[in-house]
Amino acid sequence: MAMSQRRANVRLPPEVNRVLYIRNLPYKITGDEMYDIFGKYGAIRQIRIGNTPDTRGTAFVVYEDIFDAKNACDHLSGFNVCNRYLVVLYYQPNKAFKRVDIDKKMEEIEKVKTKFGLHAEEK
After folding, report:
1. Which terminus of the chain has fewer Cβ atoms in its 10 Å neighbourhood, N or C?
2. Tens-of-pLDDT digits for all 123 residues of the chain?
3. Is the residue at 102 inside a domain?
4. Structural domain count of the chain
């Protein structure tokens, strides 16, 4: 049986996708080092390393193939890089931005309340 036929029968959990979100990276890690670590598991389409104060120590790794991404996720969670243990997760856009959305909405609500003088008197 060909590899692709065998793979077609495999049911992957719904959260599995080609984009991995990596946390707890050393701040000074380079793109080349990332390719060395993650490239062992398959062809990589793109790596984005966080470079702002909020995103330092994180990266996105996009694989060409979902099975390579799953393999990397399974093997690299807890991998030691410069005495830091990697946290490797599947990227879930709805989860990643939910917290930010809630904060923004609360901010908007506060602005509207202030604009219309709706703040209840503190007791």
Report:
1. C
2. 445 545 667 788 888 999 999 999 999 999 999 999 999 999 999 999 999 988 999 999 999 999 999 999 999 999 999 999 999 999 987 765 555 666 777 788 888 878 887 765 544
3. no
4. 1
Q: Domain of 60?
A: 19-92
Q: Which whole-number Å values give the CA distances from 10 to 5, 16, 67, 106, in the listed order?
A: 9, 12, 10, 43
Q: Parallel, antiparallel, or unpaired for β 87-90 and 19-23?
A: antiparallel
Q: 79 in helix, strand or coil?
A: coil
pTM: 0.70
